[in-house]
Amino acid sequence: MIMTRATALLALFALKAAAQYYPYVEYSGTTFFDGWDFYGAIDNTTWGNVTYVDSADATAESLAFVNAAGNAIIKVDNSSTVLSDGIQYRKSVRLTSQAHFEVGSLFVIDALHMPYGCSVWPSIWLNGILEEGQVWPAAGEIDLIEAINLFDHNQMALHSYAGCVQPANVTQIGKALIKNCNDTTSSGCTVAETKQNSYGPGFNQANGGAFGLQFDIAGIFMWFWPRLEIPASVTHATSTSTMNISDWGIPSAAYPAAGCNITEFFPAQELIVDITLCGLWAGFPSIYAQDCPGQCFATNIAGNGSNYAEAYFEIPAIRTYTLANLSISAAPQTTGAAAGSPSGTGTAAADQTGAPPSAGVSLRLTRSGISGVLGAALAGMLLLLL
């Protein structure tokens, strides 16, 4: 029997709905900052003009705290004076999860406010855990939330070694910009969000929204929902409830396994939240000049910092799930980097000399037979769509 594209899509969504995800690690409320390592060093990955503070300084200088509403605030220093000589950098925050996330993971991020402004480069992303001797992007990178300067939309991407691409004619809402995940410009295979208010003032004025990421053997899929369009499965979720994504709809970005062997290119990942300034994307002269006046450092970072009043995340919760029914208490695992020391090795232009984590214990997920069958079926169904 020949399956039409419409029939295949219906079957695909039916199979995806059959997957049930179990709660893994939740970051919310007064304990939001438990289970993270603070970078505690200069930005040596995107070469932004920031010094990422350690946990003690983040607390003392109110750069990472839980506000009266119970939401996490992660921000750039907007009160200190930075000299224009370029010797001193502005302080910011980079968090790296102590938990590791294998294929078979699901992420939901609820955000009320996103950092934006000239020179500002925020991101929430997954970075692959490198083995000894490897350099970025050997373990892959998954960018769920990333934008710069005065962008009015979010941009999603994968980074990998050669051999991983986004197939043609994928079913997604966003606009594909680059299909090769090993793109030589280091942009990766990128998709621009086409829904309104996914970043910048529009996002903040609309009371934010939610983002979803499915990291599965069948592919990597990303969603954005404005506040009034967040699916019931997400709005009704609790710290102990399972998650079924049957009401998530068509993803904003789709990277099916038909174009990229997920288990080959994306081993265990760490979750990272950061805000850098200028650097190799936001501060690249020709890119910066498209939206912003003057020079990235001299016009923005130097001075009293008052122009960074909007450079902060406000996040009620980040919830993560797995296909395996794991004990939540067993989930957090150290990354091998002490709190306050650098624990990651790269985004678009990684520090190729950075040492990989050496003492971390990655929690390997063992999925049930049914989920393995589900993944294989999804992969086959996706092939029919191409």
TrEMBL record:
Cleavable signal peptide: 1-19
Annotated TM spans: none
This protein's record includes keyword Hydrolase: yes
Pfam families documented for this protein: GH16_XgeA
GO MF term set: hydrolase activity, hydrolyzing O-glycosyl compounds
InterPro entries: Beta-glucanase-like, ConA-like_dom_sf, Glycosyl_Hydrlase_16
Residue ranges of domain GH16 in the record: 15-290
Keyword Iron among UniProt keywords: no
Keywords from the named record: Hydrolase, Signal
GO biological process entries: glucan catabolic process
Name of the protein this chain belongs to: Glycoside hydrolase family 16 protein
Species annotation: Mycena alexandri
